[in-house]
């Protein structure tokens, strides 16, 4: 799933390649991806792209300083830029293509792999009209140590849950939450509201360093290379069974019905393995 660094990089890519170009046509091949009725997608035709932005994990293409094409790529969605799109309209319901934006000759496709569809597009006059944007907490890169302490105060949920709750903190997903907790040497099952001052210091520093480093690696990359760039920078997420690059212990995994997360017991839980069920306590 694209998270804050990848969406920031996509916004930068479109800023460099799409801003100043005119939307000549939009092709919808999957009507279910479009979550709004008015304005219509044809209202974007003939208007210039004037800016791009990011709201948490949402990508915002600003058209004519008036309309916003908002994209949430969900788990399996992606943006594919092309310097020369085919002028032939794509056939609906064929393959992973959901929506195509023509910008003269170049443009981009929004695609989604797999059968579980979550890719969503809104066309609005104000980003706050998108319910998932209206519910966003503060951006993860805009929050300092004091703000983090205030945000976590009194929360009884586990740290993993809080870090990935977009209504609490916007932009962090499954992968970077694993990386942040590993860098901060904190258990995924730690209670967010009970972190010590020292633990909050490490967490604030880890959020800043992990996300900033990922943004720096990602911005400027071609959209097609961003997924590989993300994987190459991960130390524990997606590396179950491999040695931790810090201590050499084997990276462990907790699996749920539709996702999993990874951690290092030596670095994060005092050498104790976490039981592989959602509400487990540390094994004794």
From TrEMBL:
GO terms for biological process: base-excision repair. Residues 2-94 form the Formamidopyrimidine-DNA glycosylase catalytic domain. Residues 235-269 form the FPG-type domain. It catalyses: Hydrolysis of DNA containing ring-opened 7-methylguanine residues, releasing 2,6-diamino-4-hydroxy-5-(N-methyl)formamidopyrimidine. Transmembrane segments: none annotated. Keywords: DNA damage, DNA repair, DNA-binding, Glycosidase, Hydrolase, Lyase, Metal-binding, Multifunctional enzyme, Zinc, Zinc-finger. It holds the Pfam family zf-FPG_IleRS. InterPro entries: FPG_cat, FPG_N, H2TH_FPG, Ribosomal_uS13-like_H2TH, Znf_DNA_glyclase/AP_lyase, Znf_FPG/IleRS. SUPFAM superfamilies: Glucocorticoid receptor-like (DNA-binding domain), N-terminal domain of MutM-like DNA repair proteins, S13-like H2TH domain. Belongs to the FPG family. PANTHER family: FORMAMIDOPYRIMIDINE-DNA GLYCOSYLASE (PTHR22993). This is Formamidopyrimidine-DNA glycosylase. It comes from Amycolatopsis marina.
């Amino acid at each position: 799933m694209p998270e804050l660094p990848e969406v920031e990089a996509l916004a930068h890519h479109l800023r460099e390649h799409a801003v100043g170009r005119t939307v000549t046509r939009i092709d919808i091949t999957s009507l279910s991806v479009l979550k709004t009725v008015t304005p219509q997608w044809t209202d974007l035709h003939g208007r210039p792209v004037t800016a791009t932005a990011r709201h948490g994990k949402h990508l915002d293409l600003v058209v004519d300083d008036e309309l916003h094409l908002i994209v949430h790529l969900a788990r399996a969605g992606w943006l594919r830029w092309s310097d020369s799109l085919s002028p032939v309209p794509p056939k609906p319901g064929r393959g992973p293509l959901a929506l195509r934006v023509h910008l003269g000759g170049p443009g981009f496709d929004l695609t989604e792999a797999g059968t579980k569809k979550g890719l969503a597009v809104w066309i609005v006059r104000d980003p706050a009209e998108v319910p998932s944007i209206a519910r966003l907490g503060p951006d993860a890169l805009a929050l300092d140590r004091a703000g983090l302490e205030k945000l976590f105060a009194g929360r009884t949920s586990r740290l993993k849950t809080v870090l990935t709750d977009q209504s609490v903190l916007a932009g962090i997903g499954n992968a970077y939450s694993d990386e942040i907790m590993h860098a901060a040497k904190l258990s995924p099952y730690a209670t967010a509201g009970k972190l010590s001052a020292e633990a909050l210091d490490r967490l604030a520093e880890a959020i800043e360093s992990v996300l900033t480093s990922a943004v720096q690696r990602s911005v400027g990359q071609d959209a097609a290379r961003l997924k590989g760039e993300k994987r190459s920078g991960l130390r524990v997420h997606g590396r179950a069974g491999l040695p931790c690059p810090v201590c050499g212990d084997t990276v462990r995994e907790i699996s749920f019905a539709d996702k999993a997360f990874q951690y290092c017991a030596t670095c994060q839980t005092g050498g104790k393995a976490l039981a592989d069920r959602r509400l487990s306590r540390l094994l004794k």
